[in-house]
Amino acid sequence: MGFRTSVQVRFGDVDHAGIVYYPHFFIYFHEAFEDFFNDAGISYVQLLDERRIGFPTVHVETDYKAPLRYGDRLDIEVSVSKLTNRSVKMRYDGYRHRDGKLSVSCTITTVCVDMNTFSSREIPPDLRELFERFLA
Fold it and tell me: pTM here?
């Protein structure tokens, strides 16, 4: 079972057709990514600002299945599909809260970097342990 979190679809998230404008899903996924760390007691802000560790995105694949509208909630399940010494591939499955229908699936590959040099680095043991807990 993956980590679960939820986001609210806001008025500014929808396009002229009345559904979530597709780039907003990437904001939702990043919010889920932050929640993933914060819920485990690892402050994402401290990870970036104090530990100087970042996880920039290097690859994304997304499939859109069912629309979301203003006022909907998106329940996001986060899991780790691949873990290497320096990168992590995470899967985000988003379900429309009102009916449980799969709305979006996405895999995002990130690389662990030193925020001072933006060079790749090994994933620290505590973060590796967190990722391993959700390895599918």
Answer: 0.95
**Identity at 52, one-letter amino acid code:** R
Query: If you ran DSSP here, which 8-state letter would residue 14 be given?
Result: B
- Which tokens is 93 given? 């499955």
CA-nearest of 61, 4, 79 to 35 is 4
**Contact yes or no for 29/92 (Cβ under 8 A):** yes
Residues 6 or more apart whose Cβ sits within 8 Å of residue 47:
37, 53, 54
pLDDT digits (tens, 9 = 90+) for 62-107: 999 999 999 999 999 999 999 999 999 999 999 999 999 999 999 9
* CB-based contacts of 100, cutoff 8 Å, min separation 6: none
What is the Cα–Cα distance from 82 to 84, expressed in whole angstroms?
A: 7
How confident is the model over 3-33, as pLDDT tens digits? Answer: 999 999 999 999 999 999 999 999 999 999 9
